[in-house]
Amino acid sequence: MSLKLRLSRAGTKKRPYYHVVLADARSPRDGRFIEKVGTYDPKLADKSKRVNLLVERIQHWLGVGAQPTDRVARFLDAAGLLKREARNNPERAVPGKKSTERAEEKAKKAAAAEAAANAPAEAPADAPAAE
After folding, report:
1. What is this structure's pTM?
2. 52: enclosing H helix or E strand
């Protein structure tokens, strides 16, 4: 049985409140859990009071082999219980396909306008010459 330290949502609509729970990885998010080991209230103005953890119990379950989810790992890292490696996704900053196409079109139009503005002012060949 693989154990997870994860968030379980409580609270009402548009008023989230989470319990940090230890659960079997196969159980649903808000379903059965083994032990409640903390709370997280994202609506609190004071950021230092948003997360409350039972440190001794979390250390015990980490020692037994429980794996925290990414969000809980962030909380544990802030509390000094677990070292979380920083994640890096360089592809996240790459613009999408449509955005790239729009940027290329805009660059072509700008280059054409600049070429037209820099072209010498010549009289068209089929216009009559001024006498």
Report:
1. 0.66
2. strand 51-53
